[in-house]
Prior knowledge:
By secondary structure, this protein is mainly α. 62% of the residues lie in helices and 5% in strands.
Amino acid sequence: MHLVEDPPLRPKKKRKSFIGQSVLVMMGTVVFFFAAFTCVDLPTATPDNIQEYSQEKILWAYNLMPERWQSEVSARIPKVKRHPYAIEYSPYCPYVPVAIALGYIFGTFMAVASAAVFLVLGILGPLVGLFVFAQGGGINYYLQPGFGYLVGIILAAWLTGKITADRRTSLSQIAGIAAGVVAVHLIGAAYLFGAYLFFYIVEGSKTFLEWQPFLFKYLRNLSWYSLPYDVLFSIAAVGLAFPLRFIVKVLTVPEQAPRQRRASYDRRALEELSAR
Length: 276
């Protein structure tokens, strides 16, 4: 009896799950939605203000200690000197850390899709009573000074996903975070000045937009004050998101084992063998 083996079959190519990707894109959009309504007041990122805030928290912790501990601490550590001015706070929304984290976890396609769907819902949602932006949204939302920063999160998600694709090194993570943060603030600042120049040239009036007289103030609040927190929270988000990246990969790209070789029998030889 002769056994004839079929040629080895090539393993099937891995196909990404469309349903899994769709679910993850919706989840990413929901995360952006929660980020829009998670604006918190953080100490304005100036050296004096941060120093004053830190000293206040140190004194707060010191006053919570028992008296016995306070005497030991005060003997070793000099008393903190307070400055006469009050601490300033600025609102902060974690759009940038969310975009970078999703780019790191989902990759380019799903992260960009999540950011794009969020942006489209923010613009068209009010037509059906759906408001996903913190300040409402709508067709005319492009007139808001911070609209360029919302557009920038799409590029930030793409850059982070592209740079960190199939790479788990610290260097690639830092490069992805840096590229994402820089992209958001460059696009946001460019849009801020570009919108001002466009309407100034077209309309011939500096007061066409309500925020134009406060152009540099908005630039300071949206970029200068937010930049340190974007970097800090993006690093924390990527660090916490590392296990989720593996889970997403398993869910969207299931492993498929190669097919086993099939053996075919020589029928005539088998009949001759059985006739003996």
